[in-house]
Amino acid sequence: xxxxxxxxxxxxxxxxxxxxxxxxxxxxxxxxxxxxxxxxxxxxxxxxxxxxxxxxxxxxxxxxxxxxxxxxxxxxxxxxxxxxxxxxxxxxxxxxxxxxxxxxxxxxxxxxxxxxxxxxxxxxxxxxxxxxxxxxx
Length: 137
Description:
The chain is mainly α and about 140 residues long. It is about 60% helix and about 0% strand. The protein contains five helices and no strands. The protein has helices at about 20-25, 35-50, 60-85, 90-100, 110-135. The protein starts with 17 loop residues before the first helix and ends with a helix.
């Protein structure tokens, strides 16, 4: 009946009695690990303990930039709302005529050239500053 004589058979009458205790407390059914298992586990633990912790993201340095992006986004959103509200209620024909005037000359005044030069200089200066800040490390 039982191909493995070391495993005890439980009977309905003995479930609460000696058969159950004998089945649960049997030392001959203990599972033993292979010969090098404990050594390989300890070697893996040692390797994982030697790995340095990951570098944390520098949130203190990123927050000013994120705040500036949020502020610029809010300003652009407000400017868009003001622009939409300031447009006169016009039909589509006059609106399409206004769209044809978009490819007008870019530089209408000398002050436009000055502002463009100033913006390009500020952008170049910030790029140089960022590159020096990063390359110093």
